[in-house]
Amino acid sequence: VGELAKSFLWNPFFPVRLEDTLFHVLLLISKHRIQVVPVVEQSNLKVTGFVTQNAVIQLLLQSDGLTWFDCIAEKALSEFRFENESVSFVYGDESIADALHVLFKSQTGAVAVINRQTRMLIGSVRNGDVYLLMENDKIFRDRKVVTVEEFIRIETSDRDPDPTIERDMGALLSAGVLQLRNKYRPRMDSPVTNKKTDTLKEAMKNVARTKSDFCFQVDDSQHLLGILTLRDIILQFSPPSMNSNIDGGGFFETALELTGCQIKGGTLVCDH
Length: 272
Known about the structure:
Strand order of the largest sheet: 1-2-3
CATH topology of the largest domain: CBS-domain
CATH class of the largest domain: Alpha Beta
Structural class: alpha/beta
Helix content: 25-40%
Shape: globular
CATH superfamily of the largest domain: CBS-domain
């Protein structure tokens, strides 16, 4: 149990307050490998909600049409170099136990499922899908016998028909409105995909619409090329890196200058 508990301590805990901005959240996500930012009340530190990476993507899409956004988002995926150039996978005829081993070892949050004969992408197994083993004793007992392809076709009953967090956010851009709204997850046998020729904006709309944590990059024959995570996308719009010499986008550099701040030696320095 102790070893299992340690596996849940990969990510640090960095809460934000209701009055904090999206800029603040982008700083946290770009500097630390966190998928969810808790929103707390300043008075009693009570957690009132969460800012998810998917919610950040939806907020960024509110800037669709603005020059600073489109100059980045309208580039083809092939023009970017993302962190996850390779993707972990298992074949559909392998066991669930094999998939779980690869999932735990890779620590990427998802493992692609490939048809051994055609080499085509047929699904994925994610960290969040492991709960199905806890709900179904038979599958858990037979995890070394049941194939991954059989597992990804299991029907679940807790699906929300509307995969959006908030259809119309309007001017409500504070962290407090970005909370987990439902339990919708794409089916394991219907992976979210994009092609290298698609734009970053198209990929963003794809993951936002399906509320997915990632999308697989495939060719015209559905052969797996890579994986694109929400963090990969967010980093393209993030402020100048706080822990490297890589600069961020021009929009954020200008925004920092207007507030009297700049990045020096990997540290945020303010004139006031």
